[in-house]
Specification:
Elements lengths: L1 H20 L2 H4 L11 H10 L9 H4 L3 E2 L16 H4 L1 H21 L6 H22 L10 H4 L9 H18 L17 H17 L6 H14 L9 E3 L8 H8 L5 E2 L1 H9 L5 H4 E2 L53 E2 L11 E4 L1 H13 L8 H14 L12 H9 L10 H12 L4 H11 L28 H4 L1 H10 L15
Antiparallel strand pairs: 1-3, 2-6, 4-5
Helix pairs in contact: 3-6, 6-7, 7-9, 7-10, 9-10, 9-11, 10-11, 10-15, 15-16, 15-18, 16-17, 16-18, 18-19
Amino acid sequence: MKNTVIILVSTICLIVVSGCNKGFKDLNVNPNSPTALDAAFLFTNAEFLTHAATMETEPTVVQQFINPFTGITAAFNFNQVNQTYTSANWTNEYSNSIKLLVQILSQLKGTTTRTNLYNEARIWKAYQFMMLVDTYGDVPYSDAGQAYLNTVYLPKYDNQQTIYTDLVNELTTASAALDPAKDIVTADAFYGGNVAQWKKLGYSLLLRIGMRYTKFDVTKAQTIVQAAFAGGVMTSNSDNCYLKYNTTQVNPVSSNIALLANTYYLAEPFVSQLKNSGDPRLKYISAKYPNPVAAPTATLATADTVSADQFGMPIGYSSATLPSAPGFRGANPASGYNYSQVNYSYFGALTAPQFFVTYAQTQLLLAEAAYRGWITGAGAATYYANGVKGAMDEWTTYNATAVIPVATENAFLANPVNAYSTANALNLINTQYWIASWGNGAEAWANFRRSGFPALAPNTYSGKTITGNFVRRYVYPILETSANLANYKAAVADMGGKDDMDTPVFWDK
């Protein structure tokens, strides 16, 4: 009897346990907490998390923007190392976009139904690494984003020239592989999945990367440029690659400069170029305000946008030495100084777009390629005019009221100061590229180093930590010297033994 009871109890327990286990796995899965994300949503996030150079960084190096104050913001305004700024590109790209793009490529590799998303991710990953190489030189590439996927916690740095070679291959093959008959990535923040425009973006980036080689390997530059041109680059402003913002998702560059508005000013070389050439974009870029600290909240009616009233702050002075600058404009009675700031109703608006690759930039690069005899097509003068007009028409993206009439554009191009001339072609083209890249500091800085134009005077502020005239690269984040020391040392040795702002990247030599 005792044994019978034990068997009966055991049987009941088994039935109960069996009944409880049925559906137990499903009951313990939270339907509102997904364990995997669609790659398209990762891609949207990777686009929005792309690092946009703040105005205190590259735009300051190329003398478009200036902050005269010392202290925690002392950096490129005084040719000094400041890890807050030199590490920004690295930290933002590796922690955000690159990690997501590597995940997407790992997730979609070999998936034939999503080849367009896969190749668009390759193109945008190439953009990220082009920017990182242009900024630092050797960087982690083949090991990047592999901590979760392959437990690579100490990534090696790849040789910068080797990375560029692979980027050329990535852009070439990914652009060619895009097919409008296949998957359409509607979550794409740039083009809404328009495959033809992604193809143009890929070849326009290939053109950009080819032009980087102009003073390092002319033959290679020509070959890459011709391949990009044959592939088909951007043909109008509708092809521009940029992020759109609204009052909820605001422009990070604009929001950053609005925080300390009375410390930020347009630089004298940039304002003088726009004024002296009669550039109609000046009123959308620059403004004077009665109270600099309140500029971000001022209305357009209270802003002075008259060209003759715009004055950029001189380079090479701190707030302490600024009164000794020739033609010092004086301190503003309310706050700050009597110099031009950004126009917060257009460029500085929180809803302003953030451009990465544009038709105007592309046309200006084609103008230089045509001048060099590498391509034919419309000819250097026409490409130059297209680039200038494209950059002017671009301002309607900031605000529909920012219309520059065709007659005004033509008059600007007819002005002897701006008119295309074979004898002065490189200066004209690349000075306009500098202006067309306003707000896209990383590209303005890269093209300045590549071309040597515009011919800016060095910042001679005493106490600088560079020996040359301009910052040529950023130093690595200090965390790398402790967390990834062996690979850091190998990278520095590969670049000549110095981790400083004087060591040029490979194409800048």
